[in-house]
UniProtKB/TrEMBL annotation:
Pfam families: F-box-like, LRR_FBXL18. The gene is Fbxl18. GO terms for cellular component: SCF ubiquitin ligase complex. One of its GO terms (biological process) is SCF-dependent proteasomal ubiquitin-dependent protein catabolic process. Residues 15-62 form the F-box domain. SUPFAM superfamilies: F-box domain, RNI-like. This is FXL18 protein. It comes from the Eukaryota.
Length: 707
């Protein structure tokens, strides 16, 4: 016994004591701990940690934007303890904190950067706070109905006059604080104004009385505007642009306007673009499609060292892309992000007589790959990019040369192995109708019994398999059907019918999904409208191999009349320990006890969204899941259940868990109910934009647009 005891003591003495690590290593470890935990908990454990937790490297920048457990009292204590040490404070999306929380920010006298997007801030509170922040140079705020610039004090306006970076989200027609910011170098505008009030009255894009002050753009270097659907947003952004059209800032190097649908060019905007062509050299460009289509604008614009281009939904042909933008490969090594989403002719020499389904010109894509060899983000979704049959010219083969890619979005039909499709005739599974109608019995299918058999059946020589193998460091991947449209609305009723998938995409299924499992560092995956998913076995491979996966979005996989991949999905979820966001969109989805039991293995899950026409849910299973998964703060379900069932479940979840989860946001509502759009408008913008609404997010904005 004494020998055993001495051996145990020896093992203990040889054990690793965390406190024996160097300060540098400990500081690196502590940098992964939320600041509220460091200051309010960890530093109270011992003297050494008390000193380290207050190190400037940990208190200089405080990020609360994803700290869903933070509440008003914690913020108050945090500001009291380290307020003077904070130089950068990010509270973006903290919608659950009461507006009085903002009062405590006044303790941060040395603040240089402050992000309050998504927080409740009145004009008077903003004025009081900014009056004390004399060193502020970067600010992000929301402008809500009732905002009154006349309530801003002279001290507040003095602070704003020194602000060089402003991000402003508008929920009402207003200039906000822009006229007060006389030193602006970067201006980001997000227009989220609805066309109708809650009472049903039509809104006007005219600014409120007393808001006729002119913005100051003379020092502007970056102008970015993102518009939500609606004519009022277009009216208001034109007022912001009117000043730019009079005199274009000579230092402007990034000009970006993201507008859905049709946003017509006017005389003022044409003058602005002509002035830009004469006077500035750009590094980043994004314009509404109507401003580019059919014009020679790109031929006249001058570029310096461009890092971002977006020609989303433009009719730009590949010939024009090569001649006018890539310019024979000159000066394009600097380009790191390119968005060609919905640009249906961008890989064809001309668009006049071309059908969208015609084969691409591989030489154009090859020129693009060679010229832009340092691309990190590339979006080619929402178009039919069909590769020719010639060997070595497949889209996947050409893209495999882009070794620096971190995010990639492709249409489903672009990853089809053309040679394989030519050699083999259509199988019975290819002939299954992709509709909501009656299921057709086509005979007994034979599927592999286990993962080993399935792996042996993989054709690892396919071009998509090779592409996935070459992009080892890819973090974000989107494979989206070129004709896919989500049933989840923005400002309109839910979509009841969807277009059939592209014929070339009919063979894309489980083996292609399994190929994705080669992406060891994958963090975000979107799969939508993959018709030939038969068992979903590829999902299990991803769950086993992609251990860093944080975001998963699956939509309309396999037959539309049945969720054929449910068993595989449940097996996959048992391995997704890092998964934080899960979005599922599939008709007839059954959110029952087995599904939620499997989902409970995702111990890190924070947000869940299910969109399912004619889908069903089991209330007891949902409640049990919420009780087991303590990190979940968002539960959105838009199903086929009755309004009564949905309301009762929503109330039960809020009543049971709101007290312990201050950020809890629950929306359970019938998908096809006429009041769905009214419910959607109350969803916090953070959740709506990041998960609830389906969209391609690759190269959506320039990298590092805001911190």
């Amino acid at each position: 016994p004494q020998e055993i005891l001495s051996e145990e003591n020896e093992e203990e003495s040889n054990g690793v004591n965390l406190m024996e690590f160097s300060d540098e290593i400990l500081l690196h470890i502590l940098s992964y701990v939320p600041c509220t935990d460091l200051v309010l908990n960890v530093r109270r454990t011992c003297r050494k940690l008390e000193t380290l937790c207050l190190d400037k490297s940990l208190t200089h920048t405080v990020l609360l934007q994803k700290d869903y457990k933070v509440n008003k009292d914690k913020v108050k204590q945090l500001m009291r303890d380290i307020g003077k040490e904070i130089y950068q404070l990010n509270m973006a999306g903290c919608y659950w904190l009461p507006s009085s929380t903002i009062d405590h920010v006044t303790r941060c006298k040395n603040l240089v950067k402050l992000n309050l997007s998504g927080c409740h801030v009145t004009s008077l509170r903003l004025s009081k706070m900014l009056s004390t922040l004399q060193h502020l140079r970067s600010l992000a705020i929301d402008v809500n109905p009732g905002f009154d610039a006349s309530q801003l004090s002279s001290e507040c306006k003095a602070t704003l006059s020194r602000v060089s970076e402003l991000k402003q989200t508008l929920y009402t027609p207003s200039y906000g604080v822009v006229p007060c910011c006389t030193s602006l170098e970067k201006l980001l505008l997000y227009f989220e104004i609805l066309d109708r009030s809650r009472e049903g009255f039509m809104l006007s894009g005219q600014l409120m009385v007393g808001e006729s002050n002119v913005p100051h753009y003379q020092n502007l270097r970056v102008f970015y505007a993102r518009l939500a659907p609606g004519y009022v947003n277009q009216e208001v952004v034109r007022l912001y642009l009117a000043v730019l059209s009079d005199r274009t800032p000579e230092n402007l190097h990034a000009f970006l306007i993201s507008a859905p649908g049709s946003f017509a060019e006017t005389g003022a905007t044409k003058n602005l673009l002509d002035s830009m062509a004469r006077n500035v050299r750009l590094d980043a460009l994004q314009l509404p499609k109507a401003w580019i289509n059919g014009s020679g604008l790109l031929q006249h614009l001058k570029f310096n060292n461009p890092f971002y281009f977006s020609f989303s939904r433009c009719t730009l042909s590949g010939g024009h892309l090569i001649q006018r933008v890539i310019n024979g490969g000159k000066d394009l090594k600097s380009l790191t992000s390119l968005n060609l989403s919905g640009c249906v002719h961008c890989l064809a020499p001309e668009s006049l007589f071309r059908k969208a389904e015609d084969d691409i010109d591989s030489s154009i894509l090859e020129s693009l790959v060679v010229s832009c060899c340092n691309l990190r983000h590339l979006n080619l979704s929402a178009a039919h990019h069909h590769s020719p049959e010639s060997i070595g010219n497949h889209l996947c083969q050409l893209l495999s040369r882009l070794k620096h890619l971190l995010s990639l979005a492709l249409p489903v039909c672009s990853i089809t192995d053309v040679a394989a499709n030519v050699e083999k005739p259509p199988t019975a599974s290819n002939l299954v109708p992709q509709t909501f109608g009656r299921k057709v019995r086509i005979g007994i299918q034979t599927y592999p019994r286990n993962l080993v058999d399935q792996a042996n059946q993989k054709i690892e020589s396919t071009v998509f398999w090779a592409l996935m193998g070459s992009l080892r460091f890819l973090e974000t991947l989107e494979i989206i059907g070129s004709s896919f449209s989500s049933a989840m609305p923005r400002n309109e009723p839910a979509i009841r019918n969807s277009l059939p998938p592209c014929v070339r995409a009919q063979s894309v299924g489980d083996s292609e999904v399994a190929a994705i499992s080669q992406l060891t560092y994958l963090q975000s995956l979107t799969l939508a409208q993959l018709p030939n998913i038969l068992t979903g076995s590829g999902l299990i491979h991803i769950g086993l191999q992609c251990q860093h996966l944080r975001t998963l979005s699956l939509a309309n996989l396999g037959m539309m009349g049945k969720v054929v991949y449910m068993s595989a999905l449940m097996d996959m979820l048992k391995h997704c320990k890092c998964l934080r966001d899960l979005r599922l969109e599939q008709p007839y989805f059954c959110a029952g006890a087995q599904f939620f039991q499997a989902l409970s293995h995702c111990s890190s899950l924070q947000r869940l969204c299910i969109v399912s026409r004619s889908g069903t849910l089991q209330s007891d299973a949902v409640m049990s899941f919420m009780a087991n998964c303590l990190e979940v703060i968002m539960c959105h379900m838009f199903m086929g259940e009755s309004l009564t069932v949905c309301k009762n479940l929503q109330q039960s979840i809020v009543r049971s868990f709101q007290a312990d989860r201050p950020a809890l946001n629950v929306v359970i509502f019938p998908l096809l109910h006429e009041d769905l759009t009214e419910v959607i408008r109350d969803v916090p913008m953070r959740h709506l934009d990041e998960i609830t609404l389906f969209k391609s997010r690759v190269a959506e904005e320039p990298p590092n647009l805001w911190w």
